[in-house]
Amino acid sequence: MASDGPKAQEGCMIDAKQLQTFDIVRKMSPSIVKSLAEQGETMTVESGGTVLKQEDPAQRLYGLISGEAELRFLFRDRILKLDVQYEESVVRRWETVDTSIVLETFEPGSIFGWSSMVGGKTYTASVICTAESTLWAINGEVLRSLLDSEPTMGYVFMDYLANLIAQRLAWRTDKLVESWAEAFGSPRVE
């Protein structure tokens, strides 16, 4: 049975050594790593469980310790449905069609939930586990406060995050252009 969301393991903070599986954490000072371990918590999510949902308040940053998850964007399209019943009678109604698009697959060592760190009020996509997964989570405000206490580490963290976001946006732009060319038969946008 799929889980509705992450289940915190009672009183289970992550081991600082386990945090070292995340590239960004390897660049942090020992005092920040210790605080991350103390302030964060581990969670287990069953296959099919939702970690975070598009448009929910962005409160936590997550790291995938084990398992696999997908970043999914829910696209809502309104379609006008016409039902011609008689020559002079047309019934019109709008129907909303939801389509879930997989943007990325996360493997252990991945972080997600950036909106909690970059000022977003809500998550811009959902994350669904495709296998039973163990995650590490920390409240975004708590993490920002920790990084404010050591500005050099805050810079290192945000620089890493900015580079990661830029890489993922470049990849998505490439996919968008590729899709455009397939859909319209032309690689040129005018």
Outline the structure in words.
This protein has 190 residues and is α+β, with helices and mostly antiparallel strands. The protein has 5 helices and 9 strands. The longest helix is centred in the last third of the chain and has 34 residues, at 151-184. The protein is elongated. The mean pLDDT is 86.
Summarize the structure.
By secondary structure, the protein is of the alpha+beta class. It contains 5 helices and 9 strands, in the order βαααββββββββαα. The protein has one domain: Jelly Rolls (Sandwich), CATH 2.60.120.
Topology:
Elements: E1 7-8, H1 16-19, H2 23-26, H3 30-39, E2 41-45, E3 50-52, E4 60-66, E5 69-86, E6 89-106, E7 111-112, E8 126-129, E9 133-139, H4 140-149, H5 151-184
Antiparallel strand pairs: 1-2, 2-9, 3-8, 4-7, 4-9, 5-6, 5-8
Main beta sheet, described? 5 strands, antiparallel
- The SSE order reads EHHHEEEEEEEEHH
Radius of gyration: 21 Å
Low-pLDDT stretches? none
Average pLDDT reading:
86
Number of strands: 9
Strand content: 25-35%
Distance between the termini: 48 Å
Number of domains: 1
| CATH superfamily membership | Jelly Rolls
Quick one: overall form?
Answer: elongated
The CATH C-level name is Mainly Beta
